[in-house]
Amino acid sequence: MAHPEGLGRASSFVWHVVPQVALRLGAGPLLPAEADAYSLARLDPRQFRRTVGGLLERSRLHEVNRVHAPAAGTPFAIDLLNNRISQGNPIAFGLDRICAPLLADEDPVTRWMKAASRQRFGHDRFLRWSPGFEDAKGGELEFIC
Q: Which long-range contacts does 35-44 make (Cβ < 8 Å, 24+ apart)?
């Protein structure tokens, strides 16, 4: 994906937001143009979770043109970033590790997971996605409160 200057939300998300998440998780040297969104860098973990969750909701990643096809059976990286939060989104995973979700919190990632939990299990106590979330039949997952 080209540098984001003038290319819209999806490109900015990939160039600035994703690398900021990676940096907070301990990633090493980035390209000079990556993660240069100073406003994200100075947020505390809870503010970062709320802000990045909101940006993820509005990222428009689904509009990205797929120019180069990956190997057969391999998803595009952008498709993985575009996974629904309640179906295993890697940015949401990172946010859960940077700043754990709270039951009383209403950040966008927590809001999505609470809604999916209510729909599937009749309660909103599953605040993080895990691989078993897709197959669980109410109560089989550990509650995170």
A: 37/12, 40/16
